[in-house]
Design brief:
Strand content: 25-35%
Number of strands: 4
Order of helices and strands: EEHEE
Number of domains: 1
Length: 65
């Protein structure tokens, strides 16, 4: 959990944030949420994963700041 009350889904090795979704399509607000988590945590890499797709590789977005 971040100090401001937000809860990220998964933090790997204190370096990578993984935000998990199951939506028909990822929206800009989902990416903005992950970017906010990255900025607040000091991490520079994140993955936005949507499990509501036929091929999982189509539901993965990598974000780096």
């Amino acid at each position: 959990m971040l100090d401001c009350g937000h809860r990220l889904d998964l933090l790997v090795e204190d370096q990578v944030i993984v935000e998990i979704k199951s939506v028909s399509s990822l929206a800009p607000i989902h990416e903005a949420q992950l970017l906010s988590y990255l900025k607040m945590s000091g991490c520079c890499r994140g993955f936005l994963i949507n499990f509501n797709v036929k091929m999982l590789k189509e539901g993965i977005r990598r974000i780096k700041i």
